[in-house]
Design a protein that fits this description.
Number of strands: 0
Largest sheet: none
Low-confidence stretches: none
Number of domains: 1
Oligomer: single chain
Helix content: over 70%
Distance between the termini: 34 Å
Order of helices and strands: HHHHHHHHHHHHHH
CATH superfamily: MFS general substrate transporter like domains
Number of helices: 14
CATH class: Mainly Alpha
CATH topology: Growth Hormone, Chain: A
């Protein structure tokens, strides 16, 4: 088999594994998690914390996972993440209190903390000069897992509901499906990725000291680059708004507007559909014409519909606004990871993707916490001012990116 055929086979295998892993994680998260927390008596701030806690795991462990992958090999590190996807979801079956839910969510966060940056580094390694395009295709295919997870969760909740209410058993059934999808992703990875040859060979000195030395080098080299930090910040801030929407769009849709859990899942699903459709095209444009304009204007395309959502209660209008938010997300995410890769050397690619993922997770974790605190501050029912304030953060960050990184084509 030629190198090109081998790379294509590996890429397709990664896409299949990523699809199932993300479907598992999405089903565990939106809209099921927020509604599960609410059913356990959680208020707005507590719901935001439950949604954010798994992302907090990524803040602390995503960069170390990327650095370790540079040292011991990315495929091996990838398998560690997939084991978490497969095993931890079984713990949800024993959750009966809010505090237990938070603990399980924290450990479930190790799945994406380990898997996320390493998978991107593997894709970058096999993509050559098609980085943005292949990263966009990979992201879009794995996002299809998110697309299936959210409406499936809403559908299962609606189907299982008794007199419009869900009980503990219903949530346990859904998390049983989460565990099955995670196991499937691990089994497929064992079949298709065991023979994958690293494009960047694991580095010598695989002792604890060697790993720590490499970690310090990676942190110093990545975090002292202003361009990498500002570019990663765009993804982080965009994910702040996405995390807020992920946590409180189901709450707004079900408890304020009066929609069903299935409709709440569709609102999240339509955003994912649009991102899937638009992102590969944006990735190709990014490779050909430059990444900076897509990142800058994409932030505005996220900010406007995000601010408008709590002003409407009509389901078709909310679908349209969610779709527009998905367009903005595609603009930003099609170019931000590729721009970070452009700015880094191959030996530190895992470290760079780990730093990128850490900032991503800081934003994703901050969104639910910030939104929950603001909604609680405004009485628990007024989503307008909190969403407007978060939208303003997106606009200010876009202006900072323009000033700090510039308008260069590359």
């Amino acid at each position: 088999m030629s190198n090109q055929q081998s790379s294509t086979s590996t890429f397709m295998g990664l896409c299949a594994v990523g699809f199932l892993a993300r479907a598992s994680y999405a089903l565990a998260r939106t809209p099921v998690l927020a509604l599960f927390a609410a059913s356990l008596g959680a208020g707005p701030e507590a719901i935001g914390f439950a949604v954010a806690i798994s992302t907090v795991t990524g803040i602390f462990f995503k960069m170390p996972a990327g650095v370790v992958s540079d040292v011991i090999g990315r495929t091996r590190t990838l398998f560690f993440g997939l084991v978490v996807f497969a095993v931890v979801p079984f713990a949800y079956l024993f959750v009966e209190t809010y505090s237990a839910l938070v603990v399980v969510r924290f450990f479930h966060g190790f799945a994406t903390a380990i898997y996320g940056p390493v998978a991107m580094a593997v894709v970058v390694g096999i993509a050559g000069d098609r980085r943005a395009e292949m990263l966009s295709w990979f992201s879009s295919i794995t996002i299809v897992g998110n697309l299936i997870g959210a409406p499936l969760g809403g559908f299962l909740l609606t189907t299982l509901a008794e007199n419009g209410q869900n009980n503990l058993t219903h949530f346990h059934i859904i998390y049983g499906v989460v565990a099955a999808l995670g196991m499937a992703s691990l089994l497929i990875a064992l079949l298709v990725l065991r023979s994958h040859k690293e494009t960047q060979s694991p580095q010598a000195g695989k002792t604890l000291k060697g790993v720590m030395d490499q970690f310090r080098v990676g942190v110093r080299e990545i975090l002292l680059d202003r361009r990498v930090l500002l570019t990663s910040n765009m993804e982080g801030v965009q994910n702040l708004s996405m995390g807020a929407l992920e946590a409180f769009l189901p709450v707004y849709a079900v408890f304020v507007v009066g929609l069903s859990a299935f409709q709440a899942g569709l609102l999240w699903g339509v955003q994912i559909v649009v991102t899937i459709a638009v992102k590969p095209v944006m990735g190709t444009l990014s490779d050909r014409y430059g990444r900076h304009p897509l990142i800058f204007w994409g932030m505005f395309l996220c900010a406007v519909p995000f601010a408008l959502i709590p002003w409407f209660q009509n389901f078709p209008t909310l679908l349209l606004l969610a779709a527009l938010f998905g367009v903005g997300e595609a603009f930003v995410t099609s170019s931000s990871a590729a721009l970070v890769a452009d700015l880094c050397n191959e030996k530190q690619m895992g470290s760079a993707m780990g730093a990128f993922g850490t900032i991503y997770d800081v934003g994703h974790a901050t969104g639910p916490l910030l939104a929950g605190a603001l909604i609680g501050l405004f009485g628990g029912q007024d989503f307008r001012a909190p969403f407007a304030l978060i939208a303003a953060i997106l606009v200010v960050s876009a202006l900072a990116f323009r000033l700090g990184v510039g308008r260069a084509v590359r």
